Amino acid sequence: MTSTREISQLFCAAQNIDPTLSIKPRSLPRLSSLAIKAGKYNRNRLFKNMAAGKISIFKDFPSPLRTVRQRNLTNPTALILDAFYHSGIQDRIRTKSGKKEVWKYFTISELAEKWQRKKANINVTDLHFRDTPIENVIDSKRLSQFNLYPCSTEHASWLEMMTLVVSSRAGFSDSHSDDSDGSNHCFTGKKLWLAWDTNEGIANGLEDLDRQKITGKCAFDMETYLSLQSACWFTIETGQTLFMPGHLTHKVLTLEPYLGVGSFYLAFPNLLRTLTRWLAHPPNWEKLERKGYRDLLYPDLIKTAVKKLESLQHATENSKLMWGLDYLKYAINTWNRQTANAEKEKLLELGSLDNWSLKFPCSMKSSFVNIP
Ligand SMILES: [Fe+2]
Asked: What is the Å distance from ligand 1's center to 68 Cα?
């Protein structure tokens, strides 16, 4: 995507799904300057961006699709649809359907049929597939080998939310923000993402479903969006992988029928940044989970990280690289630079939760020093 003509065409198509994306011709150069393009996979960029809270998009990140040859199916879409039909997932999946966008429940087979018919209006982003036969086809580890969530306790590991994304054309997710940094891999299709810093957006009147009480659609104004310092947009297309920090509100439009996989991650490079953000602006899980949950979650995550850090001191060099351990020092320095003292103090106080006496960031630093 290079020319303003192509960008204009892209946003014209998007406008049919979301009329708020109407763009004035004079605003096209500004819109063009906000585009993020997919690049070649680069481990240095992934972990540095993760530490600094920046977006990474790769066109050749290793696909989580296993190279299995099931029933002679080699096409990724056919493989995934076949996995749906044989998934054994009994739960009915809730999604809006039809022109009137009425909430309905479907079996996974019905969902697959609807998606193939192309005319249906479905947008499922939370189809959990861990411990189902779908894992025979999709390797859930590949997207987040560095992810601490799956190593943590039951209280904490659910935050990973490894899910399939199944959207027909025009599937739309209104402006919202997720608690954790997230990854998205596209097996087939195309989505347009618009993103901006949650706090900057709210201060300027761009609403967020997860932060405010909204009736109807979130307020969004294109000119205001274009004026934000943090505004950016991009498409995620077949074979591409997105890694996005959790401080960004985003709205997402499906331009071509889409099958993908998404999950959330906490890793050594984004650990301090994520915990600090949660302490400054209470995350959604604080609203959803029972009282006292935060007093379980923070120590669980901290203990998981420290234990992993300790075990990695005796691990192979490859393991350390896989966990992004060589970017921990960079992450701590970035966190020190980007974080106000009052917010740092809040994180240090976490050490006293649940009688957990560890001064966490200090421990991270000293542990890092001990790593050869
Ligand atoms: Fe999201």
From this structure: 30
The pLDDT tens digits of the residues spanning 318-354 come to 999 999 999 988 998 898 888 888 888 787 776 554 3
Neighbours of ion ligand 1 (CB under 5 A): 178
* Alpha carbon of 195 to ligand 1 centroid (Å): 10
* d(CA 250, ligand 1 centre) in Å: 7
Ligand 1 mean position, distance from CA 193 (Å) = 10
* Alpha carbon of 55 to ligand 1 centroid (Å): 14
Query: How far apart are the CA of 104 and the centre of ligand 1, in A?
Result: 21
Q: Which CATH superfamily is domain 39-265 in?
A: Cupin (2.60.120.650)
Ligand 1 centroid from CA 69, angstroms: 32
d(CA 183, CA 114): 25
Range list for CATH 2.60.120.650 in the chain? 39-265
* Binned average pLDDT, 10 residues per bin, the chain of 372 residues: 85 95 94 97 96 96 75 68 76 71 79 79 80 82 90 88 89 93 94 97 95 90 97 96 97 94 94 91 78 80 87 90 91 87 79 44 47 34
Distance from Cα 335 to the centre of ligand 1, integer Å = 24
Instruction: Give residue-wise pLDDT tens across range 25-43.
Output: 999 999 999 999 999 999 9
Alpha-carbon distance values, 136 to 68, 87, 125, 292 (Å): 8, 10, 20, 37
How remote is the C-alpha of 309 from its chain's centroid?
A: 24
CA of 343 from ligand 1 middle (Å) equals 25
